[in-house]
Amino acid sequence: MARNIFVKAYDEGPDFTGEVWPTDAVYPDFFNADAVKWWQENLETLYGTLKFDGLWQDMNEASNFCNGPCYTEQLAESPQKHKLPYTPTGRDLETKSIALDAWHNTSDPATVVTELDAHSLFGTMQVMASNSWFANKGKRAMIIGRSAYAGYGKFASRWLGDNFSSYEYLGYSVTGVMMHNIIGIPLVGADICGFGGDSWAELCARWYTVGAFYPFSRNHNALGSVPQEPYVWNNASYLYPTYKTSEFIRLQMRTKLALIPYYYSEIRHASNHGGAFFKPVFFEFPKDQDAYKNLTHNVMLGKQLKVSFQSTENETKEWTDYYFPEGDWCPIFNTSVGCITGPANVSLPSRIYQSHVHLISGGIVPLMTDLVEKDNHNVSNTHGIQQLPIDLHIHPKYDAVINGGNCNASGRFLNDDGEVADPEGNENIYKLDFYSLCDPGTKSMEMTLAINQTATNTTVDPTSND
User: Fold this and answer.
1) Which residue of 32, 177, 297, 364 is most buried, as measured by CB atoms within 10 A?
2) Catalytic residue among 19, 44, 58, 284
3) Residue 148 shares a structural domain with residue 215
């Protein structure tokens, strides 16, 4: 308290006191440079006690269990909320929030900033302070927060906040993740199985089938709800009694691990060059009117992969119509469905454990499909993935007019140690180009695969078998 670093109840007033889980709470004023220093000092103390690689920063709207001031002596003489010419949504803006009259200490005494002005900035300023601490330690920041403002994606990632255990909210999650990718926060996901309310085995299985494709995948639920960890569902599925629901969930977790090389490469590329990763199909096919339909079932993952999954219907829905735009689309994991030539609406099986990943012609993607198809591995994190070889899935595009009867494909693979803060010179960037003679009238062909490594601070040979 002596450092005078917390949000004030009003100008020159006492520290604003709200209520959160430990009861009375005060709030760091991130407009105050000394508050940022205090925050980072505490992170350093925590790190000295328990080493950590990331932070989950919740309740940073900032939340308050009171509606404005908890104590009458902190009420403003003339509250701002009664002077507003317009109140968005008509809801009391102090509901579960810091009072609008709370005062922030800026470096300029002539600049007055109240909570009315600054409320939406709290979460972003908090993660900026945390991000800076990681940078000062030479560590890559891994921060998941809840409240965000414009520019937040430069400093941290998000999840979608409290949701509910229902198929309705499972569907909402897909467009929610899309929206965040559009506004520059690609690493985002929803609480798998739902947060509020009691989940059940079949909903959880279908949610894992969808959630495996979130950039950020996490099971999380509320205190008081029934447990929903994967091992809880270790009984036979009532729909498919020869399988345990936990086996379906394990399949989806392995699928996520298999996707990480591609996810990392594409999201890393987007962070440098802009664009969305988990996005609506119409982002890649804007002139195709049918690409604007059924957004919750059809998702583009970068430019190369399309995933199709059932995300709004209950567990009895076993077939779903999916849309494939122009191009030749070949399956990656569930190859029994065969390749599809678009544009086409295709009905595919959509049991609670089924999704369909297709690679468009002209693409090369790095994956680790052995993690899905084989049991002789013990990989549970990205470090384990680094020890295994990468599969390159190549789907050449034939164009007799433009390419003179040749088949071509391209892609990329970005790789580093997962911890370095500055990737410049510390990552391997492989530009993948496939070329072959591709005359449909003959079986003979030639192929070249060009791989370029641009890292400068490594001696690794990209063509080595090690």
Assistant:
1) 177
2) 58
3) no
